[in-house]
Amino acid sequence: MKKVTSISGGKTSAYLAANYPSDFNVFALVRTSDLSCKYPDEFLRKKVEDRIQKPFIGTLEDDLIIQTIFELEQFIGKEIHWVSGLTYNELVQKGYLPNKMKRFCTTFLKIDPIFYWWAEMIGEPIEMQLGFRANEMSRANRMLEKVNENGLLEYKATFEKNKRGQNKWEEVEWQAPCFPLIENRIFKTDIEKYWADKPVPFARLNNCVGCFHRNPILLRKMYEGHPNKMEWFAKQEEIEGRGNWRSDVAYRKIINSNLQQEISFDEFTECDSGYCGF
Question: Where are the alpha helices (DSSP H) in 35-136?
Answer without folding.
Answer: 42-52, 64-76, 88-93, 104-106, 112-121
